[in-house]
Amino acid sequence: MSNPFKAIAGLLVTLNLFACVSIPKGAVAVKPFDKEKYLGTWYEIARFDFTFERGLSHVTANYSIKSPGLIKVDNKGFQDATSRWKESIGRAKFVEGEDVGRLKVSFFGPFYAGYNIIAIDDQYRYALIAGDNLSYLWILSREKNIPEGVKTEYLAKAKALGYDTDKLIWTKQD
Known about the structure:
Number of domains: 1
Number of strands: 9
Largest sheet: 8 strands, antiparallel, barrel
Helix content: 10-25%
Structural class: alpha+beta
CATH class: Mainly Beta
Number of helices: 3
Distance between the termini: 63 Å
CATH topology: Lipocalin
Order of helices and strands: HHEEEEEEEEHE
């Protein structure tokens, strides 16, 4: 005979996995955050290696309004090994409110990951993005490169949080 309380507890844990996202210890999302300024195309300057972007160059992310409270995420990159473009389309939702740079992003059904904007300049030209934990980090720019001063600042911030910035892959954009 099965225990209905264990089944309910298991269901709640499973639902929690789909809905909860986190931010690395010590990291703080940008606030106030301006969603409208963030929309548009960003070039990936650097990232940690992970399965979904492995072997990609010329990576961009485009953010647009999909519906109220929902942002369309369109990631593209060139797969050097196959000489083909790869595209992933997902959605993002704000975790705390649209004035805080904490979002959860999904490319696969009910599974979400943290997308935490932890640094951005006043003109929204350069951004430092943390994932749920110290395994995910991105540096983005509105242009195909980033000034050395911004790069140095963002690397120092990431290192202070515990990221091993020596493991960053610098994305080929030219």
